[in-house]
Amino acid sequence: MSEPILAVSGLNARIAGQQVVEDVSFTVPSTGVTALLGRNGVGKTSTIKAILGLIDRTGDVRLAGDRVDRMPTHRIVQRGVGYVPEDREVFAGLTVAENLRLAERDAEPRRELVERLFPDLVQRKAQRAGTLSGGQQQMVSLARALLNDNRVLLVDEPTKGLAPKIVGEVAEALEAVADTVPILLVEQNLHVVRQLASDVVVLSGGKVVHTGPAAEFLDDDDLVHRLLGVHGDHAASDDTTNTTTEEGRA
Ligand SMILES: Nc1ncnc2c1ncn2[C@@H]1O[C@H](COP(=O)(O)OP(=O)(O)OP(=O)(O)O)[C@@H](O)[C@H]1O
């Protein structure tokens, strides 16, 4: 197997004096989607922020074998770690085109690729981003990360709060994006995990409690229920597939 694009080892992070990431170790293969799963508040977002140096952390983080854990965030981003944050963070008062232009870091941004994957954004380039739907804002956020020649994308809950039809559209876009760059994906919707992910890393209480192939994990209903508090994605009812429901919200 080729070298992982991202290797996290013994990662620890604290927020406001509380340890939110504890001795976390996992790898992200150089192709495909790796899903970072867990109930609400287990430290998924904090793990991503710790990798990026957005919160204080200790531990070993390697990008294609090179240590990046002592670098400030902007250097890590320059090295090719793209971040699509949970709240999308589009500039509401700027147009779609302006939002995209601001994100261009490389001398030769991949505009054709973005236009091919997000034709709707081309149609809406003069529209102010604040007037877009949640799904469209998510596309802007993904497109911004894709403009640059990133080596890995960290994508945090891209389908959160979106209507089911739009969830499908965002998942399709992610699938196309994943053909061009490996992704570490925080995702609560297990249908989306099933569709996209080859591997899963499951957190509980800031620690890794399971890693392995995605299909194997999702097929193990008892394990899914124990670790996520929901039933697997092949269970009968749709509303049992999102870990923000049921005990997952505890
Ligand atoms: N700014 C903050 N101040 C204090 N505590 C925080 C802050 N951000 C996160 N936490 C705490 O850190 C822990 C981990 O939060 P984190 O957002 O990483 O979890 P998560 O798994 O991403 O959750 P969710 O699924 O709800 O997004 C939680 O206990 C949370 O309450």
Automatic annotation (TrEMBL):
Record has ATP-binding as a keyword: yes
Transmembrane segments annotated in the record for this chain: none
Gene3D superfamilies according to UniProt: P-loop containing nucleotide triphosphate hydrolases
BP-aspect Gene Ontology terms: L-amino acid transport
InterPro entries linked to this entry: AAA+_ATPase, ABC_transporter-like_ATP-bd, ABC_transporter-like_CS, BCAA_Transport_ATP-bd_LivF, P-loop_NTPase
Residue ranges annotated for the ABC transporter domain, each copy included: 6-230
CDD domains referenced in this protein's UniProt entry, alphabetically: ABC_TM1139_LivF_branched
Keywords from the UniProt entry: Amino-acid transport, ATP-binding, Nucleotide-binding, Transport
Signal peptide segment: none
GO molecular function annotation: ATP binding; ATP hydrolysis activity; branched-chain amino acid transmembrane transporter activity
Similarity remark: Belongs to the ABC transporter superfamily.
Name under which the protein is recorded: ABC transporter ATP-binding protein
Organism lineage string: Bacteria, Bacillati, Actinomycetota, Actinomycetes, Micrococcales
